[in-house]
Amino acid sequence: xxxxxxxxxxxxVGLLTNEYYDNIDTFVQxxxxxxxxxxxTPMAHPSFRRVLHEDKKDINKSAIDQWRNAPVFDRQDLIxxxxxxxxxxxxxxxxxxxxxxxxxxxxxxxxxxxxQELAWASHLGLLSVIYPGLPKGALSNTARAINHAxxxxxxxxxxxxxxxxxxxxxxxxxxxxxxNKLRMLTEQNTKIYVAxxxxxDLPHDDILDMWLAEPVKALIVPAEVFIPNAKGFPVLPKRHxxxxxxxMDKLRPNILVxxxxxxxxxxxxxxxxxxxxxxxxxxxxELDQVNQFATGYQDYLQAPLQPLMDNLDNNTYETxxxxxxKYQQYEQAVYRALLDRVEPESDITTxxxxxxxxxxxxxxxxxxxxxxxxxxxxxxAVEKNPNAFVTLQNKKxxxxxxxxxxxxxxxxxxxxxxxxxxxxxxxLGSFGDNELSPECLDGAQKFLKDDGISIPANYTTFAAPLxxxxxxxxVAAYKDLEHFETPYVVMFxxxxxxxxxxxxxxxxxxxxxxxxxxxxxxxxxxNIRYSQTKFTVDKTMTMHGVAGYFESVLYKDxxxxxxxxxxxxxxxxxxxIFFPIRTxxxxxxxxxxxxxxxxxxxxxxxxxxxxxxxxxDNEDLAITPIHNVGGRSYWVxx
Length: 638
Description:
single chain, alpha/beta, TIM Barrel, Rossmann fold, Hnrnp arginine n-methyltransferase1, eight-stranded parallel beta barrel, 28% helix, 27% strand
C-alpha cells in the first residue's frame, strides 16, 4: 500500500504523439486503456498551415484579408473538434509557427494562428497547451506574442517545449539563456511554464540542476532515450534515471513519454514505457524526517516568528517539540557541561537556569542529563507566556515536583537572588539571530556566574545568492513593496544556489564586552552587524533572492545546524530563510555577486537591510536598492 507521503510524490504520466489522428477519441481511449493519465496531441492538422500564405506565387489577397479580419478555423483543420475529452488532453500548438520570421506576412499570420489555437484551447477548457519550442536566434516577437496571447487565457497554462542536450556546456548554455530571455521579456508571466525534454546525451549536472529552479511543469521522456535491459525491456540510462527521479522528487511534474517507433525495443508494448516511469516514481528515495515533516510546505512562504511580541500557541510548541534531534543535542550539551563543571561524586549542586522554557522540553533535557551524569542540580524554568506557564505548572505538579522551580517573568527583566552555573536557551531562528536571541540573552546574562556556561555558546549566520522562479513569483503575486522587503521561512524545493553559502557574522554568549547599567545593556548597539560577502558565479544564472542559514555551537563540539553542508541529520525545527530582491538580476558566467547585509536596531525593534551588486571585469552590471531601509517593511519587535 502506498503511504500518504508517497501519494504526494506521485506524478501523472501521459502519452505524447506528433501524429495527426482523424479520430482522436480512439487514440485517447487506447492511451487510457494502456494506463496513461492523459495524452498530448496536436490540436490542428498540417493543413492549417495554409494561413501563413507562404506561396507568394499563388497568393489570394482576399483570403489573406478575410483571415486577418476574422481568424477562424475550418473544422477540417482541427484534430480536437470538441470538448469531449478535454479533461485528459494537453493540446500541442502548431510546429510551423514563426513568430520571429523576417517575413512580415509569415510573422503576422503566425501570431494570428497562435491566438486562434489558444482561443480554441481555452474554449475547449484544456488545462494546458504545449508551445513547440523557442527559436535559436531572435525571440523578442515570440515573447511579445506569447505574453499577449496568454493574457486572455482564463486558466490554461502554456508549456514551452525545451530540449536539453550535452551541447549545452556551461559556457554557452544557450537553451537556458533562450528560456531566460523569454521569461524576462514576459515579466515572469506565471502562465508560462517549461516542458523539459530529455535527449540521448544529457548536459553536465550543474546545467541540469539549474532547471530545478525553473517552473518545470512537464518532463518529456522520448522513447528513443530508453535502452534495452538484459531482458529486452526499455529502461533509462543511469544518468537519465537519476535526473528523472530528482525532478520527480523536487518538482512533481507531469511526465510525458512519446509514442515509440515500431520495434524500437523487442519486449516493449504501448504501456511498457509508462509502467517503467511509474516504477521509478514509486521507488524514489525514502523521505527523511525533515522532508516528511515538510511535506506540503515546500516553497511555502511563512512569516518568521515574533517571539517577544507574540505568545506562541499550543500547536506551535507541539510541532517544534516533535524534533528529536534538537533536544538530543541539547541534552548532550548539558550532559557534557555538567561533567566538566562538577567532579564525580561531588556534593556540589549545579544551578541550571532554562530561559524561555516554553512547555518544558529543555527542562526535561536538563533533568535527563543530570540523571545520566550523576550530578546534583537545582533547576529554574523561566517563561513569560502565561499560557505556556500553565503547562509548566502542570508538569511540575505531575512530573518534576521539587526538582524544578518555576519563574513567571520576562528573562530580560527578572532579578534572581542567585546566579546560575549553566544558562540554557532555545531562542534561535532560521537566520540564527532573527528571533532576538542576542537581545534576550543580553538580558539573561546577569543570571550567569562569571565563569558560567551558556548553551548555546555561539551561532553563525550564513547567506548565499539564490535562483528560484517559484519563490519570486510567490512574492511578486502580492504586488507591493512590503512583501519584497520581508524575509520568509521556507522549506526550499525549486531552488538553485548560485554559489556555496558564506558566513556573515557570529554572536557569542556570554558576551561581557558591552557597557551595562545595573547589569543590563545601556543600549543595543553592540548587536548591530554588517557584512559584505562576494561570490563568483561559474555559470550564467538569474538571481531572485538570498538564502539564509545558521550553525550553532551548543557546547564545545556539540552542534546544531541547518546549513546545507553541515545540516544536523533529521532535525526539522528550522527551515531556511529567504530574502527576496525586487527585480531578478541577470548574472553572467564569471561575474561576481556582492552581497551587503546589515542587522540594525533601535530602542523598539531590530531589522535587516540588504543589497546586491553584480559586477564583472571591474564594471558594475546591476545594483539593487538597499531593501527594507529603516525597517519600513519588516522588523522584529523588542
